[in-house]
Amino acid sequence: MDYDREDAMHVHIAYRPGDGLESAASPLTLDSRRHDAGLVITVLGEVDMTSAAVLEEYVREQAAPGERVVLDLTMLTFMDSNGLRACESLHNALRDGGGSLRLTGVHGVLVRLLEITGLREVLDIHGGPGRRRARRPVRPMTLGSPAPRRSRTPAGRRGR
Q: Please, what's the b/e burial string for 31-60 (b: 16 or more CB within 10 A of its CB; e: otherwise)?
């Protein structure tokens, strides 16, 4: 993507002396740029109970009515249920205002969280570079469970 650096805005949450430990525990950097795809917001760091509201407020302040917002999560290192809730809230607010929210660069555990919460089917989610949609994760096996059985008979024929 070709970003115009003049339009970039940065918000950085970092530990400052006198702040509580929560500001040191969840560093977050947000960078926004206008692009052909809409407003692209790069999320770097963690979105959790101490930073989810900041992300939500930042997106609401930056997005114009009816605008498409792309959250680039490639550099996201952690997201908890508060971050998921913020994404759902932003999705609903932007949609109600005639805009949209797209998550790109979705990777790692976040793919699984979106799937088990049902948000994968609600939100416009795209995986990393070169992937159109975030892949469904492989189902984990629990210890002691038998390996999945694969049929060796051709489809439509019963085994003996």
A: bbbbeeebbbbbbbbbbbebbbebbbebbe
